[in-house]
Amino acid sequence: MNSTKPASSPGGFRWLQLAIGIVCMAMIANLQYGWTLFVDPIDAKFHWGRPAIQLAFTIFVMTETWLVPVEAWFVDKYGPRIVIMFGGLMIGLAWVMNSYASSLVTLYAAAIVAGIGAGAVYGTCVGNALKWFPDRRGLAAGATAAGFGAGAALTVVPIANMIAASGYQSTFLTFGIGQGLIVILLAWFVRPPHGVEAPRKKRLNLPQSAIDYTPPQVLRTPIFWVMYLVFVMVASGGLMTAAQIGPIAHDFKIADTPVTLAGFQMAALTFAISLDRVFDGFGRPLFGWVSDNIGREHTMFIAFATAALMLLTLSTYGHVPVVFVLATAIYFGVFGEIYSLFPATSGDTFGAKYATTNNGMLYTAKGTAALLVPLASIISSQLGWQAVFIVAVALNATAALTALLLIKPMRRAFILGSEATASAAIARAKVFPDDASVSYDRLEKAP
């Protein structure tokens, strides 16, 4: 299970690559986490209704995730730089379209453009981090994903203030152009590592495959689909909360209620969104680092169980402003770890060579989960937000148990069984070098 080959020393350059990826991710964060601030202003101007407007959010997430494997193919063929530049152009264009949108058709078209751009940036940056840090996959994926989770933290208040002062259309235009230009500029400095670096032995305390599985091979493994299902269960609650936190606060009649914490005072909704982004951003690298030390599945169980507890708290006491702010902050602090743990788990299970594409396929689970976001609006209109929260609680609790009782033994059995087969094939290749049924070059990395 442990490689004895010493790792090459890439010096500080790989940390520079990680930093660039984090900033690029921060520039696309508001496409998802800042969206909730625009929902009610758009509805106030055009009266399209929340479900119709939130469909744009669903379209964005679906486009962002389901096209990542395609965008990953372009990364493998043309390199990360051109793909990230393309993504920066698309996200800037999407926000400009939103600023001029006077029909739902235009709003939905902008969501498609935004999804294409965000997926290009997201998939490329996470995949590049996994390749540069095979010895710290959890931390690297978590830090990169933290850019997406916390990127909105510094801009939530300015966006909210600008919407109040200048209107949401001017806000879309200004922030869209600025964020797009920053991504395009940083893309010039992105490059992949020269070959896949070997993990350092002292870091390999976890089950890790020594075989690089191609995307078609990955799709034929049961463990991939179990991971996919758990990803969907957890992501659905987080996406619903991120997209609907504004409407939820307004329906609870606490959105503008002042809340004072640690000497800071803000309206409950603004405070909640700002604190959510901070906790989300901090939680992703933290849980990634924790998973590097105690295991992916144990970390999943802790995070998913905590998420279920916080959603249960919101369903019961969410109408209390300070509880709303703190419970949502803790919830997002543990929710965002799916974007660090699942890429790291994918890299551990299926290898680093095709990490960008394999993780991209797993990431499409987020798009599948996004289909439930409009459903949350419908359920809340009929049964109230408490019913929505209870469904999310059940999904997170089930995911926690599945990670520990199903994913952990399945993944270990998959890695051990595959490497035993590979070792036998290598031994046969050495004894019978002319046997055409054995591809030694393909298996030579196995221990």
Features of this protein?
447 residues; 2 strands; MFS_trans_sf; two-stranded antiparallel ribbon; 20 helices; disordered C terminus; mainly alpha; OFA family oxalate/formate antiporter-like MFS transporter; transmembrane
Describe the structure.
The chain is an all-alpha fold and 447 residues long. The protein is built from 20 helices and two strands. The protein has helices at residues 13-28, 30-33, 36-46, 50-66, 68-78, 80-100, 104-132, 137-150, 156-166, 168-187, 215-219, 222-251, 268-294, 296-317, 321-335, 338-350, 355-370, 373-383, 385-431, 440-443, and strands at residues 258-261, 264-267. The chain has a two-stranded antiparallel ribbon. Helix 5 (68-78) runs antiparallel to helix 17, helix 14 (296-317) packs antiparallel against helix 19 and helix 18 runs antiparallel to helix 19 (385-431). It comes from Bradyrhizobium elkanii.
